[in-house]
Amino acid sequence: MIEEPSPPYQAPRHRTVIIELDGLLRQVPAEYHSNGTLAGRMVTVRAFHAESRFGECPYAVPMALHRPTARTDPRLIVIDNLGERWVMGFTIQYQQLNYRITSFHSTAGA
Fold first, then answer.
1. What are phi and psi of 58, to 5 degrees?
2. How many CB atoms lie within 10 A of CB 72?
3. Which of 51, 53, 61, 62 is nearest to 102 (CA)?
4. What is the CA radius of gyration of the chain?
5. In sequence order, what E strands does 1-110 have?
6. Three-class DSSP category at 75
7. Computed from CA positions of residues 91, 104, 40, 68, in that sequence, does the dihedral angle turn out positive or negative?
């Protein structure tokens, strides 16, 4: 059996995405991952506030974005600076608790 060589590692590529939450529209830096555990996904900087049934997350959290499918609700789709479409992900895990992104974090840039 012949093993295929692994593709060379490529560093995440910097992008920006326009996100609207609660009537606020912000340009948020993000990184696209072409390989590794996040391959095909994009992750923003820590710019969001999140809550769980146990309370608020003590830190700003990132948002994970993925590619839309035919069944994706169009209200969840955002466009990056290259014109590519992404779906906002609202669930984040911090210290083994699941949180839901609810708004921009108060310490995030305006």
1. -75, -10
2. 14
3. 51
4. 16
5. 13-21, 24-33, 41-44, 48-52, 55-56, 64-66, 77-79, 85-88, 91-94, 97-104
6. helix
7. positive
What single DSSP character describes residue 25?
E
Contact 15, 86 (CB under 8 A): no
The whole-angstrom separation of Cα 15 and Cα 44 is 9
Structure tokens at 19: 């996100």
To the nearest 10°, report the CA torsion of 83, 84, 85, 87: -120
Mean pLDDT by 10 residues, the chain (110 residues): 59 86 93 86 95 92 95 95 95 91 78
The pTM assigned to this predicted structure is 0.81
**What DSSP character marks residue 80?**
B
Return the DSSP state at 108: S
